[in-house]
Design goal:
- The chain is an alpha/beta fold.
- The chain is built from 22 helices and 8 strands.
- An 8-stranded parallel barrel has the order 1-2-3-4-5-6-7-8, surrounded by 6 helices.
- Helix 14 crosses helix 15.
- It starts with a strand and ends in a 5-residue tail after the last helix.
Length: 509
């Protein structure tokens, strides 16, 4: 027997893909002990967009989530997604900020660090891998899987060899857009298993409809670990359902041994929780084959729609879809994952909306072309480079080598606005990563509101207004049924949406 190991993404990528990363820690804790009983290889529950979303939208200290869940899940390893030198942000941070973040994350309960770079530039992963290894964590080095002239089996195998030489404990194939076909998955896993003496892990989104077939073919090729999401947080832009993969492998040599009844109980719980976040649903309800044509991840599709709405140009959506691959090619075929997806998508949107290609070039695009995000996988179009930075030569070093240390400066700035209060290093790290988000959060918390009182005030005001509006509507419609209060009727009519209103009270969407 060689049981397939499973990592479930329900507590991070599942709700990040489907519910805009808005699930609260309080909605995770009641089911945590059940999750701990399943026997997962790991549960991904942190990193990616969860860190800043906790402070920005939920009024939560992101560090608390790790501690609170670890208390209830002592037997299950925790996995986090770490964006290499970008940590959990959208640009490169100094090495000292990266180091202190990893030290505290591991101390609080993160066991596996899935480390990737948006350009597949190993230089931007090196420091993170070194620190995780030093601290005793599991270094899962990731290759961002995508399509285009630079990419092929040899490219990914060679990159994986480099990461293995840098100290990886396992290799993750990170298919963030759902592009990998079942037979490509079989071939890539087969070659990686031949080339490396390391566990191979496959992560594939369900956007294109191929993820489950790809996982099964990868299993046939000998993949060690796969990512899934509990069924009630699966499919569309999320991942293959855990229960489906478990059932498929029942009574085979790769049988996971998981209890389907226990999984069904967890799925039922999150099915109810998901209703509370209905206002944050992605809006996709099936397979989107455009991801195969344009190679645009589901999260990027929703971001493009948002950008176009802001320009009153939603009718130009199809034009932007067609423009995105052209921009990607001109910028050296970067994988479309945070932050390169935002860089390419924004430029494509501007090209279409303004009616002239590269009439405006955002500073992020210029910095990318200058090399401050790393080395592009293929050469940048010389004419685009000239228009963006003239005769300036792009840098050829590791971008973080040019950054000054950041922790001491952050500590001084936090001390200025926090006064004489004791400085918690975790708060300093949060500020170093997201100063504009962390400062108001820390100030609110210092006033005794735990960072949430503006959200509570907005909720109260919005609920009172809804109650008044609905009561007036009921009064205008005439008498209600005998013995039924119009206020009670209004409450029932709104019960399916008010939790969504709570999540949106801060003007999130």
């Amino acid at each position: 027997m060689n049981p397939l190991k499973v990592c479930d993404l329900m507590l991070r990528d599942g709700h990040q893909s489907l519910l805009a990363t808005r699930m609260r820690t309080d909605d995770m804790l009641p089911i945590a002990e059940k999750i701990d009983q399943v026997g997962y290889w790991a549960v991904e529950m942190w990193g990616g967009a969860t860190f800043d979303s906790a402070m920005r939208f939920l009024g939560e200290n992101p560090w608390d989530r790790v501690r609170l869940l670890k208390e209830r899940m002592p037997n299950t390893p925790f996995l986090m997604l770490l964006r290499g030198q970008n940590v959990v942000g959208y640009h490169h941070y100094p090495d000292d900020v990266l180091e202190r973040f990893i030290v505290h994350a591991h101390a609080n309960g993160i066991d596996v660090f899935r480390i990737f770079d948006a350009l597949n530039d190993p230089r931007n992963m090196r420091e993170a891998m070194k620190v995780v290894r030093r601290e005793g964590g599991h270094v899962q080095a990731s290759i961002c899987y995508t399509l285009g002239p630079p990419y092929g089996i040899d490219y990914f195998v060679d990159l994986s060899r480099q990461l293995a030489d840098m100290g990886a404990d396992s290799i993750c194939i990170k298919d963030m857009a759902g592009l990998i076909t079942p037979y490509a998955a079989y071939e890539l896993v087969s070659q990686l298993k031949q080339a490396l003496d390391l566990p191979i892990h496959l992560h594939s989104h369900a956007t294109s409809g191929m993820s489950t077939a790809a996982l099964i073919k990868a299993v046939e090729a000998g993949v060690d670990i796969v990512d899934t999401a509990i069924s009630s947080l699966s499919l569309t832009t999320s991942h293959s359902p855990t229960e489906s993969v478990v059932a498929t492998l029942k009574e085979t040599k790769r049988d996971t041994g998981f209890d389907l009844n226990l999984l069904a109980e967890i799925a039922a719980y999150f099915g109810e929780v998901r209703r509370k976040y209905a206002s944050f649903e992605s809006g996709m309800f099936g397979v989107d084959v455009r991801v195969l044509q344009f190679q645009i991840p589901g999260g990027m599709l929703s971001n493009l729609v948002s950008q176009l709405r802001g320009q009153n140009a939603e009718d130009r959506y199809e034009e932007v879809l067609a423009e995105t691959p052209r921009v990607r090619a001109e910028l050296g075929y970067p994988p479309l994952v945070t932050p390169s997806s935002q860089i390419v998508g924004t430029q494509a949107t501007l090209n279409v909306v303004l009616g002239e290609r590269y009439k405006i070039i955002p500073e992020e695009v210029r910095q990318y072309i200058r090399g401050y995000y790393g080395r592009p996988p293929a050469p940048i179009d010389p004419e685009i480079q000239r228009r963006a930075i003239g005769d300036e030569e792009p840098i050829d070093c590791r971008p973080a080598d040019l950054l000054e240390a950041g922790m001491e400066k952050a500590r001084e700035e936090v001390a200025e606005f926090m006064g004489n209060q004791a400085l918690n290093e975790e708060d300093v790290i949060s500020y170093a990563l997201f100063p504009q988000v962390a400062r108001p959060f820390l100030e609110r918390r210092a006033r005794g509101g735990n960072g949430k009182e503006p959200v509570v005030a907005a909720i109260a005001g919005a609920l009172l207004k809804q109650l008044a509006d609905r009561s007036a509507a009921i009064d205008a419609a005439g008498p209600s049924k005998p013995g039924v209060s119009p206020w009670r009727t209004a409450w029932r009519a709104g019960s399916g949406r008010w939790t969504g209103l709570i999540e949106g009270a801060g003007g999130i969407r």
